[in-house]
Design brief:
This protein is of the alpha/beta class. It is built from 16 helices and 14 strands. The two termini are 32 Å apart.
């Protein structure tokens, strides 16, 4: 099959949606499919290149001035669809916004089935964003009224992919046809992400000091709950010799976090290493993984940490609740609760036996339920169903066996 990906941003911008799209595209290409990623162009970036075997076409250009932004954005997507109308078998859209609107509104002209995969549910999800922002000039008027019209049009897509039970419930509740909302959890390469045979060697290679190490991976963004994390770990750092917290990622909060860490005189204990090319060795070097987010779909970083054999502490939200079996393969805590987060981290740091048991169980569970090949099987089945024009994709293996 030939699959055209439409995504707002892509490499070198790296976030959960971008990493998932690249993993999916790379896996499909490895299986013999053809994939082209169409994304936004920015000054200084190549318009065409291939990264890690994935062809990228930066054909979405914008004039970033008021209403010219959505108009030029939509026009660029329209042009890309017309350019590929005799090539693509399926269009895969990674959000519910202008890309999805144009792809579905133009269906009669390009004739290609459309699969839409929103990022997550909740406040940071696609549907909530539509409620907060006007979608003018697509539908002028108050945001709530126009977003409902927008959703009704998007609901005409051939299939929707929900990566968590929470997201599926939100989509169905908003009026999306239940028999076209498939549950396909994210998948992880369990060969690439695996426990280390010698943590000390990995630490040395990464120039990381010895001692207990807690790792958090994600954008430095309010969605990731990093203020809560710092509040939770400051007392732990002061009473736990050698303990360090490593944050991997970048984003708008970096300056604020650096200032807070300096004020607390913890710059040598809380390390901001920015974006790294490969997170796998950092996970293999860690003792505990933490994800304090207040909004998530199904976080790739959590799956990767569990596949690496790490005991994990995560907020009880979205796909985190689908992945972690609380008390067995990790610990779930209320989002925004620094006390509960600190207690969970301390529990794992103080009991090596508990940490080892949970890490081993996490690895075993992820291998059984969230392997990359299982995810690719489900996407292939989804694409095949919509390509063949089936009235419903409900017979596609939808990953319901992956939920706890």
């Amino acid at each position: 099959m030939r699959i055209l990906f439409l995504i707002a941003q892509f490499h070198p911008i790296v976030g959960g949606a971008e990493r998932h799209a690249q993993t999916l595209a790379r896996g499909l290409i490895h299986r013999g499919h053809e994939v082209v990623v169409v994304t936004r162009w920015r000054k200084g970036w190549a318009q065409r290149e291939t990264i890690d075997g994935v062809p990228i076409r930066r054909g979405i250009w914008t004039l970033d001035f008021g209403l010219l932004y959505p108009l030029t954005y939509a026009a660029s997507v329209m042009r890309a669809l017309l350019q590929h109308r005799n090539w693509a078998d399926v269009i895969h859209v990674t959000n519910i916004y202008l890309e999805a609107f144009v792809a579905i509104a133009m269906r009669r002209w390009h004739g290609i089935p459309v699969v839409v995969r929103p990022a997550c549910a909740g406040y940071y999800g696609d549907l909530a964003r539509l409620e907060r922002f006007r979608v003018w000039p697509v539908y002028p008027g108050p945001a709530r009224i126009s977003s409902r019209k927008f959703v009704r049009l998007i609901a005409r897509a051939d299939a929707f992919v929900a990566n968590s039970q929470e997201l599926r419930g939100e989509l169905v509740g908003a009026g999306f046809p239940a028999d076209r909302v498939l549950q396909i959890p994210n998948g992880v390469d369990v060969d690439r992400f695996r426990p280390a045979s010698d943590v000390a060697d990995v630490r040395t290679a990464l120039n990381l000091p010895p001692g207990p190490l807690v790792v958090c991976i994600g954008r430095l963004d309010p969605q990731k709950g990093l203020d809560t994390l710092l509040t939770a770990v400051e007392p732990l750092l002061r009473r736990t010799p050698g303990l360090r917290v490593l944050l991997l990622g970048d984003g708008p909060l970096r300056g604020d976090l650096e200032a807070r860490i300096r004020r607390a005189e913890l710059a040598d204990r809380i390390l901001l290493n920015g974006v790294v090319a490969d997170v796998a060795p950092y996970l293999r070097s860690a003792d505990v993984f933490v994800l304090p987010s207040v909004g998530e779909g199904m976080p790739n970083a959590l799956l990767e940490a569990m596949a690496s054999g790490l005991p994990c502490v995560a907020s009880a939200i979205g796909g985190c609740r689908d992945v972690i079996r609380d008390g067995r393969t990790g610990l779930l805590v209320p989002p925004g609760n620094a006390v509960a987060l600190r207690e969970a981290l301390e529990q794992l740091l103080q009991s090596q036996a508990l940490a080892d048991r949970m890490g081993a169980a996490a690895r075993e569970d992820v291998v059984a339920r969230f392997g990359l090949e299982r995810m690719l099987d489900r996407y292939e089945a989804c694409y095949r169903a919509v390509k063949e024009g089936r009235p419903s994709a409900s017979d596609v293996a939808d990953g319901s066996d992956a939920w706890p």
